TrEMBL record:
It comes from Pelotalea chapellei. The lineage of its organism: Bacteria, Pseudomonadati, Thermodesulfobacteriota, Desulfuromonadia, Geobacterales. This is DUF1318 domain-containing protein. InterPro entries: YdbL (IPR008309). It comes from the Bacteria. Residues 50-72 are annotated as: Disordered.
Length: 220
């Protein structure tokens, strides 16, 4: 009887250890490639309407959705379908990630909407009304400096940023041929957000409030 119970106990412990092993498997995240891909996306999709060159067309910004797919500086001034063809043979993970993300309608839509908000957000960052969190989101620091409608705009901005971060997480799993499970997405989502935030901190202007990875707020 005792021998049988011992066998059951050993079997149960082995099963538990096996389950834990599955849960704790680390998912590969190409941090450097993701960082460069984010930079490329910002360069080709994040446009400030206030800085628009006279005569230059920026389709979709007025309506909130791009009518024409963007062009990547990584491959020169070529249509997106040509970019996709070249990306299939590209050795660079960053190039492939940038093309993959630029081909997602939800990502181009998010960037078009972020471009529309950019002038006002720049003003609010400059005044100290808002800061950049360590997840790359916009955080209110001085509500008294906000105008009517600003809080709703900030919420919409954060939602757009979450779309970009979530899409990067999915794209990295696809690029690295890893199965898209809730556990895998959960692991790469945090890394995707941290990399997005790092890029945003580097792009922040002097005087803007930014939150470091340890949670401390500082002025750049």
């Amino acid at each position: 009887m005792k021998g049988r119970m011992m066998k059951w106990l050993i079997t149960g412990v082995c099963g538990l250890l096996a389950a834990c092993a599955i849960i704790t498997v680390n998912v590969y995240f190409p941090e450097k490639a993701a960082k460069e891909a984010y930079k490329s996306l910002d360069d080709m999709l994040l446009k400030n309407p206030a800085e628009k060159v006279p005569g230059e067309k920026q389709p979709g910004l007025e309506q909130g959705q791009p009518e024409v797919k963007p062009q990547s500086r990584l491959f020169g001034p070529q249509p997106l379908f040509s970019m996709v063809t070249e990306a299939q043979a590209a050795e660079s993970e960053a190039d492939t990630l940038a093309v993959e993300l630029a081909s997602m309608p939800e990502v181009t839509k998010a960037y078009a909407e972020m471009s529309q908000r950019l002038p006002r957000l720049t003003e609010l960052f400059g005044s100290g009304a808002i800061g950049l969190s360590n997840q790359g989101l916009v955080s209110v620091r001085d509500k008294a400096k906000l105008a009517a409608g600003d809080e709703g705009m900030i919420a919409a901005e954060n939602q757009s940023r979450k779309v970009v971060v979530g899409s990067m997480a999915k794209a990295t799993l696809k690029l690295t041929k890893q199965k898209e499970t809730p556990e895998a997405l959960g692991q790469v989502m945090g890394k995707s957000a941290a990399t997005f935030a790092e890029n945003r901190r580097e792009a922040a202007k002097p005087g803007w409030w930014i939150q470091l990875q340890n949670g401390r707020w500082v002025q750049k």
